[in-house]
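Chain A, query sequence.
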Amino acid sequence: MPRYLSYDDTLRIDLDLEEIITAFEEAHRRVADGEGVYSPRLRLVYPPLSGNGAGRPWRQNLRILPGIVSGLGAGVRVGGSRAREGSGGSFLLLFDFDTMTPAAIISDHMVHGLRSGIPNGMAARRLALKDARVLGVIGSGRIARWGTRAVCAVRSIERIHVFSPTPEHRRDYARAMQEELGIETIAWEDPRTAVADADIVVAATNTTTGPILSGGWLKSGCTVIYNTPEEIDVETARIARIVVGLKEEIMGHLPPYEAVETLMASGELTDADISCEITDVLLGRKPGRQSPEDVIAYLNPGCGIYDTAVASYFHRKAEEQDIGTVLPV
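Chain A, predicted structure.
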């Protein structure tokens, strides 16, 4: 019988971020070994789309991200939202791998922030300099906070700098993260100052109109992690070594990674320049960082194997901690 986890239920579950990061990495490994499959997201938008989706010119959209991973299950995130109104919602559905019967129905509001932020920990662990000490954050919402937690779970961060265009939001982020993590956190009034000394940068914003930082602001050796397609600028795409979560989720993404598409159209970037996936780095098939001076841009799209991994984790923890409601079938 499936277990239902409400939003309040998800907040009660004890989480181990390193354990979740490792679960995400294991999902990548299983897919590489032929023990998992996924489909690129389906985004159905209304009114019908004209053009490439730049600026997200729709009012309603429905997103479906499925994945099946041996030993974890079959998961799918189904979410709907209204553009720029903050309304809508989503659920995670988990099916048992062996029987394909429903195992869990999970409210996705909190979980989505965690699931989107956890790959920041993968990127920081596999791509950032080992002596990285300063984290710069652009954004102050759910994904920015979970991305911060994930980076700090795998790197010995000593100072956090944050910028958000809304003063009270960046001040609230700074208070909350300093209290929770015990790390000095400074709110800055401009994005350039927030990233100037950063060894790792997390960009996690709700921008729909274009880049939120310039590649020219990044210091040598920086690893910058982009969580939204519109965030990356042409200069970063031009100077950085690009590593992606899943290439299929980058190419043809709706909305587009315009900086990447622009440079590919001009010939400055080739297919080889965006062919290094995090799985290649995990398995040692390709180097992530080739020198201490490399600027690395990690493009973090959502994908179905993450939804499967996080749904499996929450389901297992809920059973262990006896949280949620078992539904009759």
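The radius of gyration is 19 Å. The chain has two domains: 3-112+304-326, 119-299.
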